[in-house]
Write a structure and sequence with these properties.
three-stranded antiparallel beta sheet; 17 helices; 19 strands
C-alpha cells in the first residue's frame, strides 16, 4: 500500500491461496477462524498507514473494543476479568492481594512515560551499533533497564506473583517467558490497558484481506498460489525470482517470509557472512504453539471473548517449553470464544473456539506424529479448568496445527511461530535489518526483522522498510 502510494509498480508473490500468512483465516464448514493473531492491539500504527494512503482504518475494517479485554484464571487460584477501568481492576486485585491495590495505576503512569521515550526507537531503523548513540536511544536508556527481566521489572510494582504474571504474560506474544524477556517489554500490557484490545469484525484476518483489496485498487498485482522456487543473483544483487508460474525481475525485492527458513532455502550460504547456516542454527528461537480450531454446537455464553489460563506451576511449565523441550502435563493455554462478540464467524446454532497451547519449537524430544493425539487429549482435559468439561461432546468441526505443521506447511524455521527470540543479543541492530546489508536491493519486513514480533511492530517494520527502500530508489 505504501509503496504503491509512492508511485512504485508493485507485485506481491504469495505462496499460499490467500494473503496474510499467519494473519489469515481458516474456513471450515461455515466456520471462520483466525489462523494466528487474534488480539488486535495499538491500532495507532496501522491507522496512520491507512491515513497515509487516504483511507480510514475503522471505516475499512470495523472493530469493537472489548471489555473485559480477557479473563485470566490461575491454576494456583484466583481470577481476573481484565478491564481498562483501573478502579474496577483495583477491586479485583484487592481480592487477590490487598497489598497491591494502586500498583497497576503506578505501573501505567510509569509505562506511559516509558512508551513515549521508546516509541522513536521502535519507529527508526537500526543499521549499526552507532544507532545506539542516537538522541532518542540515549533519552530512553534510563527507562529500559536492559539487564533486568520483565518478571523482575514487574516485581518492582506487584508483590503477588499471580499479578506479576497477569501483567507479564504478554511476553508470550514474543514467544518468550517473562523470566527471559527484557524488561523494556513491560509496555505491552500498558498498550492493552491504554489503547484497548480490539476485535475486527470478521476476525484479524479481515485486516489482511481488506489491505489486499485496497492494494489491488491502488494498482498492486497480487499473485496467489505462486511459491518462489529459486533466486537468481549477480554478485550481491538479486536480479530475478523464479516461481512455479514465471520469472520476476525488479529494482528491489521485499521479503516477508520467515527469515531463517528463507535464507537457508534461497540465499547461498557463501553469500551470508553474518547469517550463515551455522550461525542461524545457533540463534535463539521463540516457542511454538499447538493449535486446535473447534467448531462446536451451541455457545459458551459464560466464557468471555479472550481467556488465558495459567498453569498451577507456571515456572515449571515455562521451563518445560524453553529449557527441557518436553510437553507439559499441566499446560497453560489460551482460548478465544469470538462468537460471543461476532456471531458471523460460525453457522447458526454453532460457535467456534480457538485453542492455543505454547509448546517447544521443533526439538528431538518431541515427535509430533507420535505425540499429537496424546497432547490433544491433554489439552482437551485442561479446558475443564475454565468450565469446558463437556467440550468433546460438542465438537463438530476440528482442525489442528502442530509445530511440525508450522514448519512444513507455513515454512517457519523450527516451527518457531514468533520467529527469532527477543533477547538482547537479537534486538535492534543485532536483529536482521530492514535494509539487508549483505545483499543489494533486498529488504525485510515482518517479525524476523526490527522492531520484532506482534502486529503493531510488524506494521511498523513495513513503514521503516518502505522509507528506506524509497530513499534508495530516489538515489538511483
Amino acid at each position: 500500500m505504501q509503496l504503491a502510494k509512492a508511485g512504485c509498480d508493485v507485485t506481491v508473490i504469495e505462496r499460499r491461496s490467500q494473503v496474510g500468512g499467519r494473519t489469515s483465516a481458516i474456513e471450515l464448514e461455515g466456520h471462520r477462524f483466525d489462523c494466528g493473531p487474534t488480539f488486535f492491539l495499538y491500532p495507532r500504527v496501522l491507522s496512520e498507514i491507512f491515513q497515509s494512503v487516504g483511507r480510514d482504518l475503522f471505516e475499512e475494517v470495523p472493530m469493537k473494543r472489548l471489555d473485559p479485554q480477557y479473563r485470566l484464571t490461575f491454576g494456583a487460584g484466583g481470577q481476573l476479568d481484565c478491564t481498562p477501568d483501573l478502579d474496577r481492576m483495583d477491586q479485583q486485585i484487592g481480592k487477590i492481594s490487598p497489598r497491591d491495590i494502586g500498583a497497576l495505576k503506578r505501573y501505567m503512569d510509569d509505562n506511559r512515560v516509558k512508551l513515549s521515550k521508546f516509541r522513536p526507537i521502535l519507529e527508526s531503523p537500526f543499521s549499526s551499533a552507532f544507532d545506539l548513540l542516537s538522541r532518542s536511544t540515549l533519552s530512553a536508556a534510563p527507562y529500559l533497564h536492559p539487564f533486568r527481566s520483565l518478571g523482575k521489572e514487574l516485581e518492582q510494582y506487584f508483590t503477588d506473583p499471580r499479578l506479576v504474571i497477569a501483567i507479564a504474560f504478554q511476553s508470550k506474544y514474543l514467544g518468550m517467558s517473562h523470566f527471559q524477556c527484557p524488561s523494556l517489554f513491560s509496555i505491552l500490557s500498558f498498550l492493552e490497558y491504554e489503547y484497548g484490545v480490539w476485535h475486527p469484525i470478521g476476525g484479524c484476518s479481515q485486516v489482511s484481506q481488506r489491505m489486499a483489496e485496497i492494494a489491488t485498487e491502488m494498482g498492486v498485482e497480487i499473485k496467489l498460489n505462486e511459491p518462489v522456487t529459486s533466486v537468481e543473483m549477480q554478485g550481491k544483487r538479486i536480479t530475478e525470482m523464479q516461481t512455479n508460474q514465471g520469472c520476476y525481475s525488479a529494482d528491489a525485492f521485499v521479503v516477508n517470509a520467515d527469515f531463517s527458513h528463507w535464507m537457508q532455502k534461497f540465499i547461498p550460504n557463501q553469500k551470508r557472512r553474518r547469517w550463515t547456516d551455522k550461525k542461524l542454527e545457533k540463534k535463539k528461537y521463540s516457542c511454538s504453539t499447538f493449535m486446535l480450531y473447534l467448531g462446536i454446537d451451541g455457545r459458551y455464553e459464560q466464557l468471555p471473548h479472550h481467556n488465558i489460563h495459567i498453569s498451577s506451576d507456571y515456572e515449571r511449565n515455562l521451563r518445560e517449553i524453553e529449557v527441557d523441550h518436553v510437553l507439559s502435563e499441566d499446560p497453560s493455554f489460551y482460548v478465544q470464544n469470538p462468537c460471543i462478540t461476532d456471531p458471523s464467524l460460525a453457522p447458526e446454532g454453532q460457535s467456534g473456539l480457538y485453542v492455543l497451547v505454547p509448546v517447544t519449537h521443533q526439538h528431538p524430544h518431541v515427535d509430533w506424529e507420535r505425540d499429537k493425539e496424546r497432547f490433544r487429549e491433554t489439552t482437551l482435559n485442561s479446558l475443564s479448568a475454565i468450565g469446558l468439561s463437556d467440550i468433546r461432546d460438542r465438537i463438530r468441526v476440528e482442525h489442528c496445527i502442530t509445530p511440525k505443521d508450522w514448519e512444513d506447511q507455513y515454512a517457519i524455521y523450527r516451527g518457531a511461530t514468533f520467529n527469532l527470540a527477543h533477547n538482547l543479543g537479537q534486538m535492534l541492530h543485532r536483529r536482521p535489518r530492514n535494509r539487508f546489508k549483505e545483499l543489494d536491493g533486498y529488504y525485510l519486513v515482518g517479525c524476523g526483522t526490527h522492531p520484532g514480533s506482534g502486529l503493531p511492530v510488524i506494521y511498523e517494520s513495513s513503514r521503516i522498510t518502505s522509507k528506506l527502500l524509497l530513499e534508495d530508489l530516489s538515489r538511483h
